[in-house]
Write a structure and sequence with these properties.
The structure holds two protein chains of two kinds. By secondary structure, chain A is α/β, with parallel strands linked by helices. Chain A has helices at 47-54, 76-85, 103-114, 120-133, 139-143, 152-165, 182-199, 210-216, 234-239, 244-252; strands at residues 4-16, 19-31, 36-40, 62-67, 70-71, 86-89, 170-174, 202-207, 219-224, 227-233, 298-302, 305-308. Classes of the chains: A alpha/beta, B alpha/beta.
Amino acid sequence: MATLEARDLTKDFRLGHRQVLRAVDGLSLDLVPGRTVALVGESGSGKSTVAGMLAQLLRPTSGTIRLDGDPAGRHGGALRRYRQQVQIVFQDPFAALNPYHSVDHHLRRPLRLHRRDVGRADEDERIEQLLERVSLVPARRVAGMRPHELSGGQRQRVAIARALAARPGVLLADEPVSMLDVSIRLEILNLIDRCRHEDDLAVLYITHDLATARHFAGQVMVMYRGEVVESGPSDDVILTPRHPYTQLLAAAAPDPRRPRSRTAPGRRPMAGQPVGTGCRFRDRCPFAMASCERRPPMASVGTDHQARCWLHAEDGR
Amino acid sequence: MTRPAPRPTVPPHTVLSPEILRISGLSVDYAGDRRVHAVSDVDIVLRRGEILGLAGESGCGKSTLAYAVNRLLRPPAEVVSGSVVFREPDGTEIDVFALDGEPLRRFRWRKIAMVFQSAMNSLNPVLTIRSQLHDVLIAHAPEMSRTDRAARCTELLELVGVDPARQAGYPHELSGGMRQRVMIAMALALEPEIMFLDEPTTALDVVVQRDILLEIDALRERLGFAIVFITHDLSLLLEISDRIVIMYAGRIVEQADTARLLDRPRHPYTIGLLESFPGLTGPRRTDLHGIPGHPPDLAQPIHGCSYAPRCPFQRPCCTERRPVLSSPDGAADLVACHAHDTTTGWEVG
């Protein structure tokens, strides 16, 4: 069991001479055992940068990460302990596994690195257990295979087994199913959900799919151009979105049970250049007004439900 | 002549509008040590102005089918049998597989255009947008003058909602959505009568995806072309298409009017695909599931129904003989499943 707290994480990328892109701006989140938090947003909103910082693959420009109350270790043994606790599953299962190595090798490495309590004699058994846990059977045969012999879904199962091998407390799932076939997506999400339940994992589910975010996460955070614009219990955020951007996202998601509209609702907003100050959504927002020139605060719009919008701010307008 | 004269617009949703393309008994194999039967015995009739959705998971043969119809297959792929007939408005028939050389060049892009999967990566990174658009017109409408070409390119970009000033730029200067629009503009360059869209929006996020779909639909209503929309995202197809064809393991397993498919899916695979999408609204569910298992190896002979190993409604007859694609109630809808055989059928779903 582990709790991960991030406070005011900010990441700047240098684009060239004196140009800086702020990919993530002041993001805070808490991952607690047994709960799933979904981080949703369009491509380029900074979701994966958040995952990279939480996995310590990217160093935050500012902000803090705490694991069980202690500052995250950055070097040597402390970093290794952090990595043992915080594991990540990437979007692309084709790129995440080394084509030269067998499944067995992919699972043995984390055991050697993070599970020194497991003796060499027990490794084979552990590997088999891991494969059985992610429903890759017969485990012994799968262990001898190389990535090219597996389908996308099977590879993603190997990636999940590899993450679980370290016996982590926190699992970061960065778009774990967006590259997989529709028919197997739910199976993979169910697998992650089962592991969360069995191991009391704290899960961060990064996705652009609102529907699965709603069904698999208790809390949803919506990101837009590097900042969180809305956050709250998943049903509240998705069924009664309060931020205009979340409303746009919810309206754009395909939903066959909704009567189909053949006509364009208004004019399509074009993504513009990054805005310096003020609300970042204002150039696309149907409700944009003068006060949007200033950056809106996170305003409470319900129980544990917040939206970063002047429409809901006490001192707005 | 500057460019093709505008055709009369065909009213949308005209199920009974005249036939434009007929695919009959099409089978495509990938030859090699193990011969893979990628497409088997596919029949599809496309009508003018309609949107036909083609759905199925990866490896079901949907892209191979599109490539075959567009005469884009390269060895080791080979058409084993079947025909594709394009029908002009005046009734003249063109045997697509018999075309060669110059007639084939004239047929492509003018009659059928295709937007490829991950089209955003199909643009040449070292050429400007302008030169790539001009290239299409130079190749397929050589009679057009330089000024007409420039005017047409500007017009096309405006049509798909990209600022024509951007044509001086290179692909990397455009966002994914804009590049996708440029590809659609290219496909529209010669006002084709049929557009094949192979997963045109898969790599894009939902907001951009919706914009592009609305754009395509508006263009279709204006220009009257027919669309074959290929994707694994059935929820998307249900929203935009008039008719849907579901493929599994290289064969059509169900074909129905969109509304009917949503209300009463017949094939267990279709039911499974529909179940794979949790609704955005509606009650929160804890019993979500996809389709367990994986599609069969198409290099192996399949006895009986190819879906039987994954099917929750499987019966002994399913592994013994292959179900025939037929109409369960005499209507236009087709399904290939023993459970819907009028004589031996049982309850499914």
